[in-house]
Amino acid sequence: MSAPRLEIDLDKIQHNARSLVERLAVGGISVTGVTKATLGSPEIAGALLRAGVRRLGDSRIENIEAMRLARVPASMTLIRSPMLSQGDRVVAQADVSFNTELDVISKLSCAAQRMGKTHGIVLMVELGDLREGILPGDLEPTVRQALRFPNITLEGIGTNLACQSGVEPDAKNMAELSALVASIEATFGVKLGIVSGGNSANLPWALNGADKGRVNDLRLGESLLLGREPLRRQPIDGLHTDAITLVAEVIESMVKPSQPWGKIAQTAFGEKSPALDRGDISHTILAIGHQDTDPDGLFPPGGIEILGASSDHLITDAGQQRLSVGAEVRFQLNYSAMMRAMTSPFVAKVMQVQAATSPVLSATWPGLYDYSRVDKKKRIEVGETAG
Fold first, then answer.
1. Which numeric CATH code is attached to 244-342?
2. What is the per-residue pLDDT across 200-234, written as a single tens digit (0 to 9) for each?
3. pTM of the prediction?
4. What number of other Cβ atoms are within 10 A of residue 387's Cβ?
5. Same fold for the domain at 10-226 and the one at 244-342?
6. 191 is catalytic
7. Rg (Cα) of the chain, in Å, rounded?
8. Which of 222, 220, 129 lies closest to 176, judged by CA?
9. What is the CB neighbour count within 10 angstroms for residue 251?
10. What is the mean pLDDT of residues 97-107?
11. How does residue 287 score in pLDDT terms, banded at 50, 70 and 90?
């Protein structure tokens, strides 16, 4: 099997999604499954939908187009504000888009009129993290204008926290979001069906048993794929944290000094801390680097330490082990490393499924394995030809 590769256990992802769907439903919150880190993988999308995820969200219209081409049977939401240059594509492929700018909504309205369609929008509100959103004081006039656009329906409002500045979702800012919903509904006589409270960082708040106000949707990605919450990267009880594993191959294994010699300047990626003198070490290189993943987000097995990386090489100290050339090393990953590996054309993606005759979405867009059902435990490498 080719390396480097991601081994993706669809059953574990489905378990994670089903667990969170059921736990959040107790508080009246549904789940939008975020597929952006998976490059819109139809296989992973299928696992989320089988788990009870209500709709799919992605930040790239290209990923939504790929899922449409693969006939993924779900409502699709573009969760990044559309580019003006992609207005037509957004209306053609996405059912709903998140928006902050009236100029963009105007473009979507024109496109929807030409296509004879109605496009839904969610207005994003800024509640302190300073990534995107309309300031609360500007929300009412923005809603007034948005309601005037033909072929546009205001589906709801939402917010995003923790991504840019690390601001935690809590009772205070979630209550502010609920108050804004009540104010908009009372002022304009509308009913907002979607109140999107945020992302996986909202889970500690959402699962604490307190009243959730008007929040009825969360956009989950990292928690479904990696079983962790993003605020402190702690495992979530009952979820798998090993659904996705990165496997890399050893291409050099030698005993070398632990310290470089010669005049030291910058590395290929800037400054680096001086190496500790440990004497001779089991200097082992794997065929993966910055072009494939985020080396800082890789967690090697016990006894192996990552010393550094270049574009194409991951340098490790194998400790007491002497790994042979051709041996494979398995890494757990954080969100950054997983996302970059998933979107790299140099990293193979291997889908693993357990359940006998488990229905799996047929993938028909270029580069994906085409299949509809699998029997027992099977590994399917994305990119191989159906036989």
1. 2.40.37.10
2. 999 999 999 999 999 999 999 999 999 999 999 99
3. 0.91
4. 4
5. no
6. no
7. 23
8. 129
9. 17
10. 98
11. very high
Altogether, the residues listed in the chain come to a count of 387
Degrees (nearest 5) of the Cα angle 162, 141, 174? Answer: 30
Domain layout of the chain by residue ranges: 10-226, 244-342
Two tokens at 210?
């307190």
- What is the DSSP secondary-structure string of 94-142? -SEEEE--HHHHHHHHHHHHHHT--EEEEEEE--SS-SS-B-HHHHHHH
Beta-bridge mates of residue 331: 246
* Catalytic position from the list 12, 36, 107, 349: 36
Q: Which residues contact 262 (CB under 8 A, 6 or more apart)?
A: none
The pLDDT-based confidence of 271 (bands split at 50, 70, 90) is confident
Instruction: Establish whether the linkage from the previous residue to 274 is cis, with ω within 30° of 0.
Output: no
Q: How far apart are CA 341 and CA 297, in angstroms?
A: 11
Q: Other CB atoms closer than 10 Å to residue 11's CB: what's the count?
A: 16
What fold, for 10-226? TIM Barrel (3.20.20)
Class of residue 385 by CB neighbours under 10 A (exposed 0-12, middle 13-18, buried 19+): exposed
Q: Give the three-class secondary structure for 257.
A: strand
Q: Give the pair of three-digit tokens for residue 190.
A: 């509308």
pLDDT at 162 over 90: yes
Is the Cβ–Cβ distance between 289 and 316 less than 8 Å?
no
